[in-house]
Every structure is written in structure tokens, then in C-alpha cells.
Design brief:
Oligomer: single chain
Largest sheet: 5 strands, antiparallel
Number of strands: 11
Strand content: 5-15%
Structural class: alpha+beta
Radius of gyration: 33 Å
Order of helices and strands: EHEHEEEHEEEEEHHEHHHHHHHHHHH
Number of helices: 16
Length: 465
């Protein structure tokens, strides 16, 4: 909303118009209504964005009206031509608006309309009448309802409150909000934010109530309060802080993926391939990831979102699709194929895609470890043994293969019957999902992390760590 407001004065802003239409909105007090014609030679225009609650509060306190102005340009019009006659300019004043007709510098006309209407009458005061100033909110664990004044008087450590991490759902996936996954703090550009938050256990957040009241608007405070729960027992806090959560799992997964990329670069150099970097193998640049924050790497934000324990099957499949984008789809098929071919031409790999190519590299590396040879230095012998003896290690990344099946159920490339089979391949009990799929998703994260770490160990050993 474009607005210019100074108590007791009417301010005008007329925008330049290179097209056919321009408009702006201005404010005046009801005690001094806007005249139909005015001049403002010393005007400095300003743009203001205001929330509905603040606007309601301001208009009610000040008794304001909204003043509008529309400017239109158009071609020759016989109605306007008849109204102007021999004049170049005509002002028309009506009860609720004024209109100015002018001949344009070229053929055509300019029409300017100005007027006023009541935007809001005296009513609720959602800001200045904030009940947080009077009644406050009852937070579990605090002895009295917390008002704004009481919050300012609290000392650090005496104001800890706890909320479920489901509170973050209102902000997740929205480009106008930024969530720091490890801290669970929420920022909205340069506006006020919710900070001083700590993850406790799998799905609990600890925050300082005093900082919440200082740094967030009333509606945000109420939103966080709606997810408040009783504090955990003091003797349980240390144990809960050590428990993994969605943020630690997402970080561990991207850390393992980055380590895999670095091991694949080592293998490329050992095979005399110097033009491939980690980003070619894993889809993320380790240096950029470290600079901008691991959660800002491509597709990573979606896998940092909270995981409710009562997650539905559909939501689990969608999250597996997001995991697949990070851990599997981001793998560079072309770069992996170059490594496979550099070890030796293998006709059966022509139709392999990224995950099978990675699996072949890991099988060869595992064979090198079994025979005590260097993967790159003894590549010909290792490949001969692999082909002649049919030597196969157990599928090194078998859980990643299982994970890759679940998104195909979500995209209807496989039937839902795939889900129980996949869970069994992941050593998960399908019966455990009766109360929700959240903890099952935890285990899928853990399995993917384990496979990526295992792949790093295999390559590290095969390259002579």
C-alpha cells in the first residue's frame, strides 16, 4: 500500500506515468478533509507497508480517511471532446470526487480523478489494546501469566519455555522466512524474528520467553504459545540434548554426501582426471556450502523441515522424494561414468544410471580392499577379477537403492505394495507405522547417512588412506 501520512496535513504523491495508468493512495485527517484541488510543491513521497492490525489501530486512533487519485491517458474520445468544446482543460467537482479533463500533448486526453472515502471507523485496537499488556499468556512452567511488562522483568534462565517443533510448519517452505535448522530460529528479512531457540530432543524447542516478547509481534507470540508444552524434567535435559533430530540428521546426511564427493575427486585424480570437482559428483560445492550454510545447498531446505511423529504415509513418500533429490538425483551421472570407464570399459554399464554407477565403483573399490590392492594402481587386475570370478561384494549402498524405490511410489511409477517390501529391506517393521510414519522417516534418514558414510570408508581404504 502506498501511503503518505502526517498528522493534520494532506500529503500528495503523483507518480510519473510512462504508460497509460498510474495511481497512489494518501491520507488526511477527518477533521481537515482533502480539498478537491491542491498543490504540494515540497512533497517528498514515501512508500509504507503496514499490517492490517496496525492499520486498523492507526486509523481508529487518528480518525483517518483514505484519499485516492487515478490518472488515465487515452486516445481521442468523442464524449470528452464534446465536454471540452473549445477549452483545453476542464475541472468537474462532484459530491464524492473531483475530475480533471485535459487535452494531451499529442492526440488524446488525460483524465485525473481524485476523491475520498471512509476506510475505517472507530473500532477494535488490536495493537494498542493488546491483551498481552494486561492479561498475558499462561505458559506451562511459569508461575504466572506472562504480560509484556512481566517479560521485560525476567532474568536470563528464569524464562525458559518449551514448544513442539510443529510450530515451524507455519514458516517452512516459504521464501519470505528463513529458518536456521540447528537452532530453529525464524527470521523474516530485516523484520523482527524469533531467536534464542534451542532444539531439545527429537521434536522439542526451548526458547527464552523474554526474547520472544521483545523480538516478535503479538500474533507471533500467540502462535508460538499455541504449541507450548510442559517443560521436561531437569534431569532429562542433558540426555535429550544429545538425541538426534531432523536438523542433525539433515546435516549429517549432507556432511556424508560432501565427504563422498571429496573421495570421488581423490579417485578422479588417481585416474588422471583433473577436470572434475566435488560439485560434479554430488551437485553441491563444499566451499560454497561452508560459506553460505549447509542448509542453503540445493534442495536441502526441504529435508530440514520438522517431522511429526504422526506423519501420514503420503507425507513420508513426499519427504523421501526430497531426500532422493539430495542424496541420489544430485549425483552426477556423467562424472561417475567417466570414473567407471577410466577404470576399464565395461559393456554392462552402458545403461546404468547414477546410483548403479556409484554402486559399481564401490564394488570395485571393495574388491580392491579385499585383495589388498590400490583401486587406481591395480585397476586392470581388479576389473579382470570382477569380470572373471563374478566377484561381488554385498551391495555397498543397498539402503540407498531401497530409498530410491519409495519416491517412485509417490510419483506413481511403482505400486503402494512396494512400501512394505522396501521397509523390510531397510530392516524396518511395517507394523511400527500404525501410530504414524515419523519415526520410520527418522530411520530412513539414518540408513541413508550410514550408506553414504560406508561408501566414503570403502573409497578411502581403496585409495590408500
Amino acid at each position: 500500500m502506498t501511503a503518505c501520512a502526517v498528522p493534520g496535513r494532506l500529503l500528495s504523491h503523483r507518480p510519473t506515468c510512462s504508460g497509460s495508468t498510474a495511481s497512489s493512495i494518501h491520507w488526511a485527517t477527518m477533521s481537515r478533509p482533502a480539498p478537491p484541488l491542491y498543490k504540494t510543491p515540497h512533497l517528498t513521497p514515501a512508500r509504507v507497508q503496514v499490517s492490517r492490525d496496525h492499520l486498523q489501530d492507526y486509523l481508529t486512533l487518528r480518525g483517518m480517511v483514505q484519499v485516492y487519485m487515478e490518472l488515465h491517458s487515452g486516445p481521442v474520445d468523442h464524449v470528452i471532446e464534446a465536454a471540452l468544446g473549445d477549452e483545453t482543460h476542464l475541472d468537474l467537482v462532484f459530491k464524492d470526487r473531483s475530475m480533471s479533463l485535459r487535452r494531451g500533448r499529442r492526440d488524446g486526453y488525460d483524465v485525473e480523478v481524485r476523491g475520498a472515502h471512509i476506510l475505517a471507523r472507530p473500532g477494535p485496537l488490536p495493537i494498542t489494546g493488546d491483551t498481552l499488556n494486561t492479561d498475558g499468556l499462561a505458559w506451562p512452567g511459569l508461575p504466572l501469566p506472562l504480560t509484556n511488562q512481566h517479560a521485560r522483568q525476567l532474568s536470563v534462565g528464569d524464562d525458559m519455555v518449551y514448544v513442539r517443533d510443529a510450530v515451524l510448519a507455519a514458516y517452512e517452505g516459504r521464501p519470505d522466512f528463513e529458518i536456521s535448522p540447528e537452532r530453529a530460529g525464524v527470521a523474516c528479512g530485516a523484520q523482527r524474528s524469533v531467536d534464542y531457540v534451542t532444539r531439545i530432543g527429537r521434536d522439542l524447542l526451548q526458547l527464552e520467553a523474554r526474547k520472544l516478547y521483545e523480538g516478535a509481534p503479538e500474533r507471533t507470540i500467540r502462535h508460538w504459545h499455541s504449541f507450548a508444552v510442559e517443560p521436561p524434567a531437569p534431569q532429562d535435559l542433558a540426555t535429550m540434548r544429545a538425541q538426534p533430530n531432523v536438523a542433525t540428521r539433515a546435516k549429517d546426511l549432507t556432511d556424508a554426501l560432501t565427504a563422498l564427493g571429496q573421495q570421488l575427486v581423490r579417485l578422479a585424480r588417481a585416474l588422471d582426471i583433473d577436470d572434475l570437482e566435488a560439485v560434479d559428483f554430488i551437485g553441491m560445492d563444499p566451499a560454497q556450502r561452508q560459506w553460505s550454510g549447509w542448509w542453503n545447498a540445493p534442495f536441502v531446505e526441504a529435508i530440514t523441515r520438522h517431522i511429526p511423529t504422526d506423519m501420514t504415509q503420503a507425507d513420508l513418500l513426499q519427504r523421501c522424494l526430497e531426500l532422493d533429490k539430495v542424496a541420489i538425483e544430485a549425483l552426477g551421472e556423467r562424472a561417475l561414468r567417466r570414473l567407471v570407464n577410466a577404470i576399464g570399459k565395461q559393456s554392462d554399464t552402458n545403461k546404468f544410471r547414477r546410483l548403479k554407477l556409484l554402486d559399481r565403483l564401490l564394488c570395485l573399490a571393495d574388491l580392491a580392499n579385499i585383495t589388498g590392492q590400490h583401486l587406481a594402481g591395480a585397476r586392470t587386475d581388479i576389473l579382470d577379477r570382477f569380470n572373471e570370478d563374478g566377484a561381488r561384494s554385498n551391495q555397498p549402498v543397498r539402503w540407498l537403492f531401497a530409498l530410491s524405490d519409495l519416491p517412485q511410489v509417490a510419483t506413481h511409477r511403482k505400486t503402494p505394495n512396494t512400501i512394505p517390501d522396501t521397509l523390510e529391506r531397510l530392516n524396518l517393521d511395517p507394523k511400527a507405522t500404525k501410530s504414524g510414519w515419523g519415526t520410520t522417516l527418522d530411520s530412513i534418514y539414518d540408513a541413508a547417512i550410514m550408506d553414504l558414510r560406508h561408501a566414503c570408508v570403502i573409497l578411502d581404504q581403496a585409495l590408500g588412506s
